Amino acid sequence: AQAKLQLLKSGTIIHLEPDSLVILEENQTGLSLDFLQGNLFAQSSNQENSAQGDVIVKTGTGEIKLNGADVSVSRSSAGAVEVEVLKGQAEVLKDGQTLPLAKDKTARLS
Fold first, then answer.
1. What is the DSSP annotation of the chain?
2. What separation in angstroms does the CA of 89 have from each of 65, 78, 83, 86?
3. How far apart are CA 83 and CA 100, in angstroms?
4. pLDDT 10s digit of each residue in the chain, 110 long?
5. Of 7, 8, 83, 100, which Cα lies nearest the Cα of 39?
6. What is the pTM of this model?
7. CA-CA distance, 103 to 110, in Å (whole number)?
C-alpha cells in the first residue's frame, strides 16, 4: 500500500510507494526528509505561503531543495538516486555546488 504525507507548513504532499523509507526531520527553515530507499513523489501545493515551509530531500550523496516543484525521486538497488522535475524548478546541492534543475530535467546522485 502507498503512504501519503501532507506537510502542513508548505502544503506539499509526499507520496511514498511500497517499500520506501524516509526519516522526517523538522528544523527552523522547514522540513527535511532523509530518503533511504524506494520511490517518492513530492507534489507542491501552489499556496502563497509555501515558502515558509521549505522541503529538502537528503539522499546521503546530496540534497534536493524542492522550491515548490513537483519532483519524482527514486533510489536504485545499487544506491544511485535519480531526481526528475515534473513541474517548477528544484535545486540539487552536491559537493558544495548548487545546480538548478528545471522542468523535464533529470539528475543522478551517486
1. --EEEE-TTT--EEEE-TT-EEEEEEETTEEEEEEEEEEEEEE----TTGGGGEEEEE-SS-EEE-TT-EEEEEE-TTS-EEEEEEES-EEEEETTEEEEE-TT-EEEE-
2. 9, 27, 12, 9
3. 12
4. 789 999 887 889 999 999 999 999 987 777 899 999 999 999 987 655 445 568 999 999 999 999 989 999 999 988 899 999 999 999 999 999 999 999 999 999 98
5. 83
6. 0.88
7. 21
